[in-house]
Amino acid sequence: MEIKDLESLMTRTRIQILPMSSKEEFKEWGIEDLQEEFFKGRLKEREKITGKMFYNYEGQGIALPDGEKALILFQFRASIVACGILDKVVKDVWEEKGRYFFSKGTIKTFSPISSEELGDVFSRKVTFNQSKTLLDVNKLDVLLELIEEKNNL
């Protein structure tokens, strides 16, 4: 699946940043480690074994209403390093944890995108921190152009 095809998967949707730097399992990793070992390794392996591409989370998580999808921008080490279409969130009712399920074949890695570059797309200052920032879905086409450009570097 090509990056430009991500737009066609979006129905009722939003764009959201998902911080990953604070997760204990990634503390010693660099950007390339995360892209190769986690996104291209673990997530793809989970998809082969279970037929589903998922990411376990702890804490409050993202609230995703039924029937809605989100383009998730994975933030790591003060950069956006990957994206994917979030289909479903399954929360553990007893604990603050759960799983994010992504559409098959939609996780993409690319050269890192800085907060300044993202700010240019959304015409506002975008800061990276530990919050799950929502971005203007009306800028989706411009964002996907930037991701495509970064994918071809």
Characterize the structure shown.
By secondary structure, this protein is of the alpha+beta class. It has one domain: Roll (ph1033 like fold). It has helices at 6-9, 31-50, 115-122, 140-151, and strands at residues 13-19, 53-58, 69-76, 79-91, 97-102, 108-113, 134-135. Strands 1, 2, 3, 4, 5, 6 and 7 form a seven-stranded mixed beta sheet that branches. Strand 3 (69-76) and strand 4 (79-91) form a beta hairpin. The longest helix has 20 residues, at 31-50.
Keywords:
7-stranded mixed sheet; 31% strand; ph1033 like fold; 4 helices; single chain; globular; 29% helix
What is the structure about, briefly put?
By secondary structure, the chain is α+β, with helices and mostly antiparallel strands. It is 29% helix and 31% strand.
Give the SSE layout:
Layout: H1 6-9, E1 13-19, H2 31-50, E2 53-58, E3 69-76, E4 79-91, E5 97-102, E6 108-113, H3 115-122, E7 134-135, H4 140-151
Parallel strand pairs: 1-3
Antiparallel strand pairs: 1-7, 2-5, 3-4, 4-5, 4-6
